[in-house]
Amino acid sequence: MSNAADARQVMVLAPMPLEMQAIVTAFGLAKAGEGKGAPWTGRVGNSEVTAVHIGMGPTLTREAITRVLDPKSSAHRRVDHLMVAGICGGLDPEVPVGTLINPELLVLHTTGATYRHRPPGDAPTAGKLITTEGVSLDPDLTGKFFADGFTAVDMESAAVAEVCEAYRCPWSVYRCISDRPFDGLLDDRLVAMTNPDGSGDRTQLERLLAEDPSLAGKLEQLTRDTTNGARLAAEAAVRGCLALDG
What we know:
The chain is an alpha/beta fold. The chain has a single domain, classed as Rossmann fold. It is 35% helix and 24% strand. It contains seven helices and eleven strands. Strands 1, 2, 3, 4, 5, 6, 7, 8, 9, 10 and 11 form an eleven-stranded mixed sheet that branches. Helix 1 (17-27) crosses helix 7 (215-243) and helix 2 runs parallel beside helix 4.
């Protein structure tokens, strides 16, 4: 694989801006084109890598992948392996924040559809991750997920598997636990301020902090944990990309 035309084509999806920043740094990518939605590109091993910010949730994930993999789409392009890298919520009190998750099974909450994860490399897969439509801090629901054997929860991974398998595109997911609902750092007010693209509403956040200054410490810790989790997930994706070289 000596040139860009022959190289393996890897696409990395980032649901949130902070995850995109981590991916760009870990992969050493550069902006390809102008405009907010322009992709970032680079090379890792024998792979030409393209990273794109897709937004949060199964719907935006399906739309973004279909645009690329559907041969009838004007945005269709060759993708030899598709990855998603970012943070997830922990469900097991024994698994701390900052732990990388390499699940054996991914389950779509709305349908129960289950997908087997076969990432490149020899890192063992274990446990289950559930993908939901939105963020839920309901202790009964998250407790049920844990009782059903799930280690972590996110909003994109099983949707990645769903679309990629429909188009016969190899895929893998790289997630790191950044928060746990029972730790009390994240609450519904902060969730409500998150835009679909994963960015926060700064005006609303400043208003909330003025009303409840006690949130400042929690927000600082959450920011540290999410930034670190995004970094660890992106670095794991780089290792996965290199493992594609055999």
